[in-house]
Amino acid sequence: MIVLVAVDDNNGMMFHHRRQSQDRTVRERIRALSAHSRLWVNHYTEKQFMQDPDGAACLNVDDAFLDRAAPGEYCFVEDVPAAPYEKRMEQIILFKWNRRYPGDFYFGIDLADGSWSLASTEEFAGSSHEKITMEVYVRWDGKEDRS
Asked: Mind listing the pLDDT tens digit for each residue in 78-106?
């Protein structure tokens, strides 16, 4: 599965059971990335996509979405721990707000532990943030030199 997560500079995702931020352009990117696959979300995240015309049309909604997603399918994670599912992940795509927000729920996967390799980085203007950074991490297989 391919996990998508929006984080602040401290890897924060939520504060007081609410997402720190949201962005229409990020949702468009997520829909484009997952256009030829499935996009899994839970009921909490479904509400964010309902703001967009035909936003929910692309969604597979299930509160057990991380258990249900198959290889190659996308999961947008906002309010549940992703770390217990790390072994099933093929890629992790972070959308970074490039800001620090109050947070009490964090992305719990250490991307610097040697298991993951940064494959690409892209900056773009969002609808709510001047700069959003998209980082794509792939599971490192140990075959190529990362230096």
From this structure: 999 999 999 999 999 999 999 999 999 99
Residue that has been written with the tokens 């532990």 in this structure: 113
Spatial distance between the Cα atoms of 147 and 94, rounded to a whole number of angstroms = 22
Q: Which tens digits make up the pLDDT trace of 11-53?
A: 999 999 999 999 999 999 999 999 999 999 999 999 998 877 7
Instruction: Report CA-CA distances (Å) from 10 to 57, 104, 112, 122, 123.
Output: 32, 10, 14, 19, 18
Which CATH number is 2-139 given?
Answer: 3.40.430.10
Q: Is the Cβ–Cβ distance between 62 and 16 less than 8 Å?
A: no
45 three-class SS: helix
Residue among 81, 45, 79, 72 at smallest CA distance from 60: 45
What are the residues whose beta carbons fall under 8 Å from the beta carbon of 64, sequence distance 6 or more?
none
